[in-house]
C-alpha cells in the first residue's frame, strides 16, 4: 500500500519537475534579455539535478548521486561564466 | 524497482511527502520565473527551488538510502552544501551583470528606482 | 603545528567530504587526511589572510535563524507566486547602511541574503559601507533595514569581529 503511494508520488514529482523544466525553458526561449535566459539556464540545471535524484530514489541506486553532483558542478560553473561574460562582453561592444 | 518494497510504511510515506513538497516548491519557483514581470523580480524565483525544493528532495533521498541500507548515508549533504553555497554566488553575479547592463544602456533604470538615497550618490551622477 | 595546519577548518571539511564520498574505513581516513593536508598546504600558498572566527558558540544560533527565515520566506514567496496578479506586489530596492567590515562576514551575509527567497543582494560599496538589496514584496522599507541590521549584522559582527 505505502509502496504504491510512494511510486505514484515519485511519478507525480517527476512530472512536476519536468513541468518546472518546461517553465525554465520557456524563459530561455522568450528572454527578453540575455540575463533572463541565463537565469533560465540556472533554473533548468537545478531542476535537472533534482529530477536525476528522484530517478535515483526510484531505482534504489546510488550511481545517480554522482551524476547529480556533476550536474550541480557544471551548472554553477556555466552560469558563473555566462554571468561574467555578460559583464565583460558588454565592455567590448 | 528493486529496493522500494523493502521500505517500512512510515519511511515510504515520509519520502513521498518530502518528494511532493520539494518538487511542488521547485515548480512554484519556475512558475514565478515565467510570471514575474521584471528581471529583478525573477532573480528571486529560482531560490525557491534551490532552498526549499532541493532541501526537501535531498532529505528524502538521504532518508530513503539510510533506511534501505540501515546505516546513515549522508553524502547528499555534499550536494546540499554545494547548492546553498553556489546559488547565491551565481545569482549575485547575474544581478550585478544585469545592473551593469542596465546602467550602460538605459543609464538610470535602477537608480531612479532606488531614488535619492542611492548607493553611491556622488559617483554615478559623474558617470552619467 | 601551525605550519602543518594553516587552515584547520578547510582541512577538517575536506576530510569529512572525502569520507562522505567514499565509505568510512581506516584506509580512506588516512588517504583523505593526506589529500586534505596537501590541499590546505597548497591553499596557503594562494591566500595569505585567513578568516578568524571569534565566537564559535554563536554559529548554531546563526544557522538556526537562517533555517527559520528560509522556511518563512519559502512560504511567503510560494504564496506570492500562487496569488499571482490578484494582489498588488511592490518590488523595490532598499539601501542598507552596514557597519560590518570583515570580508568573511560580508560574504556570509551575501549568501544568507541571496539564499532566502524574497531578498537578493545586488551591490555593495566598500568605501561607504552601503548595501543595495532587492526585495520582492516591499511593504516597509525601514522594517527591512531593521531586520538585516539587528537579526544578522549584529550576530555576524559578534562572530567575526
In brief:
The complex is a heterotrimer of chains A (about 90), B (about 130) and C (about 160). Chain A has about 90 residues and is mainly alpha-helical.
Give the SSE map:
The complex is a heterotrimer of chains A (93), B (128) and C (161).
Chain A: H1 2-30, H2 34-59, H3 63-92
Helix pairs in contact in A: 1-2, 2-3
Chain B: H1 9-35, H2 39-42, H3 45-69, H4 76-106, H5 109-114, H6 121-127
Chain C: H1 8-21, H2 26-46, H3 59-83, E1 92-97, H4 103-115, E2 119-125, E3 130-135, H5 141-160
Antiparallel strand pairs in C: 1-3, 2-3
Helix pairs in contact in C: 1-2, 4-5
Write up what this structure looks like.
The complex is a heterotrimer of chains A (93), B (128) and C (161). By secondary structure, chain A is mainly alpha-helical. Chain A contains three helices and no strands. The longest helix of chain A has 30 residues, at 63-92. In chain B, 78% of the residues lie in helices and 0% in strands. Chain B has six helices and no strands. Chain B is elongated and about 60 Å long. Residues 115-128 of chain B have low confidence and may be disordered. Chain C has two domains: 8-46, no CATH class; 56-160, no CATH class. Chain C contains five helices and three strands, in the order αααβαββα. Chain C has a three-stranded antiparallel β-sheet. Classes of the chains: A mainly alpha (93), B mainly alpha (128), C mainly alpha (161). At the A-B interface, helix 1, helix 2 and helix 3 of A face helix 1, helix 3 and helix 4 of B.
Amino acid at each position: 500500500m505505502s509502496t504504491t503511494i510512494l511510486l505514484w508520488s515519485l511519478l507525480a514529482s517527476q512530472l512536476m519537475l519536468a513541468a518546472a523544466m518546461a517553465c525554465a525553458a520557456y524563459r530561455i526561449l522568450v528572454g527578453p534579455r540575455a540575463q533572463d535566459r541565463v537565469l533560465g539556464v540556472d533554473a533548468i540545471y537545478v531542476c535537472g539535478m533534482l529530477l536525476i535524484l528522484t530517478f535515483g530514489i526510484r531505482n534504489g541506486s546510488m550511481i545517480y548521486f554522482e551524476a547529480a553532483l556533476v550536474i550541480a558542478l557544471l551548472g554553477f560553473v556555466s552560469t558563473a561564466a555566462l554571468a561574467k561574460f555578460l559583464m565583460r562582453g558588454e565592455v567590448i561592444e | 524497482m528493486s529496493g522500494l518494497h523493502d521500505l517500512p510504511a512510515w519511511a515510504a510515506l515520509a519520502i513521498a511527502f518530502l518528494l511532493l513538497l520539494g518538487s511542488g516548491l521547485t515548480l512554484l519557483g519556475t512558475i514565478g520565473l515565467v510570471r514575474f514581470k521584471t528581471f529583478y523580480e525573477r532573480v528571486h524565483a529560482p531560490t525557491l527551488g534551490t532552498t526549499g525544493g532541493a532541501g526537501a528532495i535531498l532529505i528524502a533521498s538521504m532518508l530513503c538510502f539510510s533506511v534501505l541500507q540501515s546505516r546513515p548515508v549522508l553524502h547528499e549533504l555534499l550536494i546540499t552544501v554545494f547548492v546553498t553555497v553556489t546559488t547565491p554566488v551565481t545569482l549575485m553575479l547575474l544581478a550585478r551583470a544585469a545592473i551593469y547592463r542596465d546602467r550602460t544602456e538605459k543609464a538610470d533604470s535602477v537608480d531612479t528606482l532606488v531614488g535619492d538615497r542611492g548607493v553611491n550618490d556622488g559617483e554615478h551622477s559623474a558617470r552619467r | 603545528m601551525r605550519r602543518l595546519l594553516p587552515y584547520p577548518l578547510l582541512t577538517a571539511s575536506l576530510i569529512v567530504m572525502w569520507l562522505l564520498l567514499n565509505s568510512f574505513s581506516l584506509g580512506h581516513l588516512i588517504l583523505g587526511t593526506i589529500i586534505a593536508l596537501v590541499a590546505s598546504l597548497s591553499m596557503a600558498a594562494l591566500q595569505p589572510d585567513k578568516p578568524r572566527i571569534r565566537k564559535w558558540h554563536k554559529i548554531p544560533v546563526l544557522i538556526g535563524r537562517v533555517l527559520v527565515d528560509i522556511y518563512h520566506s519559502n512560504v511567503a514567496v510560494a504564496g506570492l507566486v500562487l496569488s499571482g496578479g490578484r494582489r498588488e506586489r511592490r518590488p523595490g530596492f532598499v539601501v542598507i547602511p552596514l557597519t560590518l567590515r570583515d570580508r568573511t562576514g560580508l560574504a556570509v551575509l551575501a549568501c544568507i541574503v541571496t539564499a532566502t527567497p524574497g531578498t537578493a543582494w545586488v551591490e555593495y560599496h566598500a568605501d561607504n559601507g552601503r548595501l543595495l538589496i532587492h526585495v520582492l514584496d516591499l511593504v516597509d522599507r525601514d522594517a527591512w533595514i531593521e531586520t538585516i541590521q539587528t537579526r544578522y549584522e549584529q550576530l555576524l559582527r559578534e562572530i567575526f569581529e
